[in-house]
Amino acid sequence: xxxxxxxxxxxxxxxxxxxxxxxxxxxxxxxxVPYGHDKAKVAQHFIRGLADRPDGKLILVTAINxxxxxxxxxxxxVGLGDGLxxxxxxxxxxxxxxxxxxxxxxxxxxxxGGMAQIVPMExxxxxxxxxxxxxxxxxxxxxxxxxxHIYWGNxxxxxxxxxxxxxxxxxxxxxxxxxxxxxGGVSNGFPRQTGFDITVAxxxxxxLCLARDLDDLEQRLGNIVVAYRxxxxxxxxxxxxADGAMAVLLRDAMQPNLVxxxxxxxxxxxxxxxxxxxxxCNSVIATATALKLADYVVTEAGFGADLxxxxxxxIKCRKAGLKPSAAVIVATVRxxxxxxxxxKADLGPEDVEAVRRGCANLGRHIxxxxxxxxxxxxxxxxxxxxxxxxxxxxxxxxAGLGTEAILCRHWAEGSAGIEELARRVVELAEGPxxxxxxxxxxxxxxxxxxxxARRIYHADEVIAEPAIREQLRxxxxxxxxxLPVCMAKTQYSFTTDxxxxxxxxxxxxxxxxxxxxxxxxxxxxxCGEIMTMPGLPQTPAAEVIRLNAAGQVExxx
Length: 557
What we know:
By secondary structure, the protein is α/β, with parallel strands linked by helices. The protein folds into 3 domains: about 55-125 and about 260-430, P-loop containing nucleotide triphosphate hydrolases (Rossmann fold, 3-Layer(aba) Sandwich); about 130-240, Domain 2, N(10)-formyltetrahydrofolate synthetase; about 445-525, Formyltetrahydrofolate synthetase, domain 3. The chain has 19 helices and 25 strands. The strands form 6 sheets. Strands 1, 2, 3, 4, 5, 6, 14, 15, 16, 17, 18 and 19 form a 12-stranded mixed beta sheet that branches. The protein has a 4-stranded mixed beta sheet with strand order 20-22-23-21. A 3-stranded antiparallel beta sheet has the order 7-12-13, covered by helices on one side. The two termini are about 20 Å apart. The mean pLDDT is about 95. It catalyses: (6S)-5,6,7,8-tetrahydrofolate + formate + ATP = (6R)-10-formyltetrahydrofolate + ADP + phosphate.
């Protein structure tokens, strides 16, 4: 029997009109801005009216380090939200929007899978409601105004050698990592070297995802440091008077997007910073709105817990005043085998010893997540080739750490296959929690990076050139020392070498570059060879994506 693809399942969904989904949350029709019949934005004035309501329980779904074998973190997030609704709880799902770069590159979409999906899946993985385009336009408007200001006399005395604001686009294109602009003579400006990042790495994306409302958004945009003068004093976005126009471009994008699962449960899909090169969480405004409307909010953080969960706790929760009640760590038998040294092509046969070896990676993530003071449960995402002995090996290992691993079959069975996990999450969320970030605000910036490297990555040290340490010192003197740090690092390993799996210790984290995101409110530490503009693989997914005779998209999944 041939299994249906995700896109085939999504097309057969019996979606409710989006106004009915909004009604489940008590959102009046006049406070929804429909984008077609199956998606809508929630109006800002409605969100402002929720301020006095109590918050529901916040549940984070995270995972082990991603492997080519697949873990199913988004699928589990969606399944758990459906499962909580199935057992009678009012639950809302909050996830990120998908970037076009990985959709046409290698990773694919981000709407869940099987019977645990958010729909409309095709639109979510393509242009959706245009939020990413608005972010790209706002970012590049600022870039254009910098060069335009220099062209017309440079009244702010910007040092063209010290412009730090690059350009962005939402596509993987390695050719744009380093470019020269303003070629072509006097009428085109002064030539200089710059480059492109992918839109999900834009500080504007981070700002939109951390801003509380439109006023906060505009203030944060104004705080962006775009360049420095010859005396090293900063030039801000507000100095160029670009913040107002950027906020106008982002006005609609700031409104959370409401959609639904295959089981017609509400989901907010909003914002999309990557977790390897940015902070990896959906928007604060979507999460905060959901907490006012539901008893339980299930959200996810990008990639593994070493990146996404750490940034969720240390950046998003710290900045937004959020206090998660429990965390779910997603793992699979297949991924345990890969962490135990088995090649992807050899994952089929039973190999209990490899599973046991690979469990060290899961154990590291469990210990790290517990270190933030919240209860943890493991979601053992079921694959058809798993054997009972392999599943039991994971259960036994996790039990030995004082935690529980619960087998979940939501991909095949929807909410019926994840009821046990849903009930356990409720028990944990209703119990005691003592959440606290990893480090205090007043810790020096380099020490914050060292703390993450030692306590989360289990590295021996962080190494950095004197110029980088001096830059951090200058930022501290300028008043930025209390900011959290955002580690840009490979998602595949606790080290900066993506080929090193398991739970390595004793390695070194090389700090290659630091960037100040003064508007977003964090300092980015670029470690190892991580790129803020990805490239396409040798055979990009774009080669097989096309329209069929019926005008439907094929190849997206």
